[in-house]
Design a protein that fits this description.
323 residues; Arc Repressor Mutant, subunit A; Nucleotidyltransferase, domain 5; 5-stranded mixed sheet; globular
């Protein structure tokens, strides 16, 4: 977490610093005049804050590119947020793969590693494999601020409190297994895949979404009002526990009728899009758009990256702690 040098305790100073940092974080780069306008902070204060943030490695002044025409008079100062100043990691520990993505603070993936698993793999081997994949993905990428983890089962407080698919997986405490170097956040794999769809996938710009993850079983992710809905126990959407003899189309339709989403996204393995589109049109009161995910095998790890970035952003823009 960044702090202003000098120990200035004033709330106004912190709020001004956050405004400047956020403006730069959300833009490619800004001139000093643009930064003053965007942050609504005075020019002298912006320059002081930019200097402090530069000393912390978060912001840098952008030089004119080689060969660019020199402006008449004093050239305008330009600044950018250094997204390469830190990294986050998103790790999927699933039934059939351990996959890790490393991203910079803009969310651009800069590292990747993957190893196959089987649903029968014991818990100790699964964890050891995940550690190796994490280490391989992180090679050459220092400064990891937060690790996000997505896994099968009901996850509460980072601990797998219920799992019916993986041997010995219930009770695994993921922050305890992977913590020490940075904060560790963990969540259900389908919920994180839903988060990824809202961030980089078919559900961008859509706030009410049912995400259907298919494979050897089916689970749902619910995004309501732009926020993940996990339920009281963290088990919302675990329709795979029912194992209906006639398949899941009707259970998905019941969910659509219950939450009235704008969009249904189909992810995972197998192509149920056409079948679900037909069944939902038959069973539901109103038409609902049905799209196929394009994120492929990266969906859970990408959602874990987004989970980690959410924590980084919270830390960066905390009034109490952050410049």
């Amino acid at each position: 977490m960044a702090r202003l040098s000098g120990g200035d305790p004033s709330l106004l100073r912190r709020l001004n610093a956050i405004a400047v940092l956020r403006a730069l974080y959300e833009a490619e780069e800004l001139t000093l005049a643009e930064l003053v306008k965007t942050s609504a902070v005075s020019r002298p204060t912006v320059e002081e804050i930019a200097t402090d943030l530069g000393e912390q490695g978060l912001v840098e002044e952008v030089p004119l590119p080689p060969g660019a025409p020199r402006p008449v008079g004093r050239p305008a100062k330009r600044y950018r947020f250094r997204h390469e100043s830190g990294h986050v990691a998103g790790l999927e520990i699933g039934p059939r793969q351990a996959l890790c993505l490393v991203a910079d603070l803009r969310g651009e993936v800069v590292g990747r590693a993957k190893t196959g698993l089987t649903p029968e793999t014991d818990a100790a081997t699964r964890l050891a494999t995940a550690h190796r994949v994490l280490a391989a993905a992180l090679e050459g990428h220092a400064g990891v601020r937060v690790l996000g983890i997505g896994t099968t089962g009901v996850v509460s407080g980072g601990k797998v409190v219920h799992n019916y698919r993986l041997p010995g997986w219930t009770g695994v405490d993921l922050p305890a297994e992977f913590g020490g170097g940075c904060p560790v956040l963990a969540g259900n794999d389908t919920e994180l895949a839903t988060l990824a769809e809202h961030w980089r996938g078919a559900a961008r710009g859509v706030d009410d979404v049912v995400y259907v993850r298919t494979g050897h079983t089916v689970s749902l992710g619910l995004l309501l009002g732009g926020k993940l809905h996990a339920g009281h126990h963290g088990a919302a959407g675990e329709i795979g526990a029912l194992r209906p003899a006639g398949g899941f189309a009707e259970l998905v339709a019941a969910t659509v009728l219950a939450v009235d989403p704008q969009l249904v996204v189909i992810g995972g393995t197998g192509d149920l899009t056409a079948k679900l589109r037909t069944e939902l049109a038959r069973l539901c009161l109103f038409p609902v758009r049905v799209e196929t995910s394009a994120l492929g095998e990266d969906s859970v790890a990408l959602g874990a990256v987004r989970l980690a970035l959410n924590r980084v952003e919270r830390d960066l823009f905390s009034v109490e702690d952050v410049a």
